[in-house]
């Protein structure tokens, strides 16, 4: 009965975890981690945990902002280190790794980094869980088998989810460093999946990752530690060289790699890698033996599992900031009241009220100004413009008057009113608004120019005082006019047209001359291919003609 109730509640929580509402997701995560998992973990089946992790996957998918992502990843991973029993921790970790491997191909490049972070956090908390139990062999074997079966060497080898195994191999040593040193027996259990990779895996990328990210780092740290010991330099306690170097020197990697290489089950392609590592470790171990340096075996010293605090009591970062500000204000008010400074509080309130009124007034003035600028010239706009112009004229500062278009139009209207009252004839001047003129087609322009003769002046565009919006492109090829010299030379000595621009750029007094229009080039028709018969009917050559003539004479 309890199992059925827990399963039903898990399904309801899953729906809330995948909600589009941030607040609903956050409340569901808090309820899951604080109340549901600690109480119902023994009653949840593997299927229920996979359902929960489907919702948690999409909850983390929707998480935005790096700080919130890091906080959520730490809280989710803390469920492993805070588990009551090794079985509960192993089941939760297994459900997480199975879900991530299944969904790995759907994670896009923009979200991959935050899932890398989540993967690191889970590995770290799995090692913290083992550290809290002093790396007991049975517990260590249980957690390591989950990592091996679900991430590094899964039973159903899915090519799309191999990236999870690559990442685990990459970050394994980085995440285990905080709980090191551990005994060599515990290290044997922890490294067991990676020895299996070298022996049985056909994935060359994974084999390369295991070699470079794990065993070569042990080799490098061991050689550094040995060099420092030979020179008599002190090694910093807790450094990477000390933690990994001791394992590299004392574990006996050369013998282990020899056994793997000699095994009949080892993949043939991996033997070269295995024997290469074996040779390197033999060299290192011989160097330690010849140097006479004594290095103590690493022993587990115990670690305290840190409590993972929810950022700002489980609230979003924005909510937390607002709550902080409220608390500060309340504390300030309480301090003022206790000190008997009620008058100061009243003064602060009055100051706030004055500021609010001032802001309201400024907003109203801005709105009025915008209305005046956007008005089309009605009576209401005239009155508002009059009021503003009077205010400007009555001001103390003479530079405050700005002669913009609205003020100029207002002055024009006032002048027209005064003239109408006095009975003076006034021609209203309307200011031209510069508009974009469409460029006339080149064919129309050329026809207008070619229509007029040398003496005709009707084709010259009338130029008024305003600047034309038309853009003129100068080209000496198309802007040639004939400027006749005075007096005209005789016909035989006529000069070619001079290079003078025409059109709207033509100076007043210069008449446009005749424009020579270039005729359109006529396309030559392609010569038709002669047929074979016509080629046979070709007229005979002169030699043939001569031969025929001789034949006729002989006959």
TrEMBL record:
UniProt keyword annotation of Repressor present: no
Disordered: annotated span: 351-555
InterPro entries: RRP1 (IPR010301)
Keyword Cytoplasm among record annotations: no
Alphabetized Pfam families for the sequence: Nop52 (PF05997)
Entry keywords, A to Z: Nucleus, rRNA processing
GO biological process, one term: rRNA processing
Subcellular localization: Nucleus
GO cellular component, one term: nucleus
Polar residues: compositionally biased ranges: 383-392
Stated family: Belongs to the RRP1 family.
The protein's name: Ribosomal RNA processing protein
Organism: Triticum aestivum
Recorded name of the encoding gene: LOC123054845
């Amino acid at each position: 009965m309890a199992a059925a109730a827990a399963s039903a509640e898990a399904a309801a929580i899953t729906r809330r975890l995948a909600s589009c509402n941030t607040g609903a997701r956050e409340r569901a995560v808090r309820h899951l981690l604080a109340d549901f998992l600690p109480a119902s973990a023994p009653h949840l089946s593997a299927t229920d945990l996979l359902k929960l992790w489907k919702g948690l996957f999409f909850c983390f998918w929707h998480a935005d902002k790096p700080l919130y992502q890091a906080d959520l990843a730490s809280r989710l991973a803390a469920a492993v280190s805070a588990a009551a029993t090794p079985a509960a921790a192993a089941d939760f970790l297994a459900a997480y790794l199975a879900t991530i491997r299944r969904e790995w191909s759907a994670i896009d490049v923009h979200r991959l980094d935050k899932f890398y972070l989540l993967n690191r956090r889970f590995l770290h908390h799995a090692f913290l869980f083992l550290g809290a139990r002093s790396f007991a062999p049975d517990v260590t074997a249980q957690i390591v088998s989950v990592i091996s079966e679900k991430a590094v060497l899964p039973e159903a080898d899915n090519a799309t989810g191999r990236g999870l195994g690559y990442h685990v191999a990459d970050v394994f040593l980085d995440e285990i460093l905080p709980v090191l040193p551990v005994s060599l027996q515990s290290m044997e259990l922890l490294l067991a999946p990676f020895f299996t990779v070298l022996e049985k895996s056909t994935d060359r990328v994974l084999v390369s990752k295991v070699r470079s990210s794990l065993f070569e780092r042990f080799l490098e740290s061991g050689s550094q530690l040995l060099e420092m010991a030979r020179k008599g330099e002190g090694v910093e306690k807790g450094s990477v060289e000390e933690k990994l170097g001791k394992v590299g020197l004392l574990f006996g990697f050369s013998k282990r790699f020899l056994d793997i290489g000699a095994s009949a089950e080892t993949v043939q392609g991996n033997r070269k890698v295995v024997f290469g590592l074996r040779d390197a470790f033999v060299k290192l171990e011989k160097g330690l033996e010849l140097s006479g340096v004594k290095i103590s075996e690493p022993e587990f010293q115990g670690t305290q599992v840190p409590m993972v605090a929810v950022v700002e009591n489980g609230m979003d970062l924005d909510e937390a900031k607002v709550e902080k500000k409220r608390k500060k204000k309340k504390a300030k008010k309480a301090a003022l009241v206790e000190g008997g400074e009620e008058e100061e509080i009243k003064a602060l309130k009055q100051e706030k009220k004055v500021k609010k009124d001032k802001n309201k007034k400024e907003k109203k003035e801005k709105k009025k100004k915008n209305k005046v600028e956007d008005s089309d010239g009605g009576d209401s706009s005239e009155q508002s413009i009059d009021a503003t112009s009077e205010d400007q004229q009555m001001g103390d500062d003479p530079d405050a008057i700005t002669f913009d278009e609205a003020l100029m139009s207002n002055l024009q209207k006032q002048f027209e009113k005064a003239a109408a009252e006095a009975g003076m004839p006034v021609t209203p001047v309307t200011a031209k608004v510069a508009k974009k003129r469409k460029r006339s087609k080149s064919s129309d322009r050329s026809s207008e120019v070619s229509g007029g003769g040398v003496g005709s002046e009707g084709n010259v565009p009338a130029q008024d005082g305003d600047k034309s919006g038309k853009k003129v492109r100068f080209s000496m090829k198309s802007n040639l006019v004939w400027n006749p010299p005075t007096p005209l030379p005789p016909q035989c000595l006529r000069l070619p047209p001079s290079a003078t621009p025409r059109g709207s750029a033509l100076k007043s007094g210069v008449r446009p001359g005749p424009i020579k229009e270039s005729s359109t080039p006529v396309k030559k028709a392609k010569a038709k291919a002669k047929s074979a018969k016509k080629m046979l009917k070709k007229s005979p050559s002169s030699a043939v003609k001569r031969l025929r003539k001789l034949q006729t004479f002989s006959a």
